[in-house]
Amino acid sequence: MPVMTLNDKQIAAVLSEIRRGLGEADTASANWDVHREPGEEEMVEYYLHRAFTQTLVLLELCALPKTSERIEQLYEQAKKDLIKTDYSRYSGVVYLE
Hints:
Radius of gyration: 16 Å
Structural class: mainly alpha
Number of domains: 1
Number of strands: 2
Number of helices: 3
Mean pLDDT: 85
Strand order of the largest sheet: 1-2
């Protein structure tokens, strides 16, 4: 089976898409200390799952197996409570943990 490689522009596009999805998750969860809209939790979970999946695929295509294994471990740990939030006493904002 031929190995697929990505050029710098393709890698940048994938990273941009991952960043965009994480931004969507951050925006949707920004006011969870005050109120959660119906469907927001599911939407945030979707964006986070998608970001992990996109990252793992990118790492596989870039032939980075050790990094991929570590991200997979982090993903397994995160899936236990993917949308857990905490409050930063330093910045005064809620964040996804």
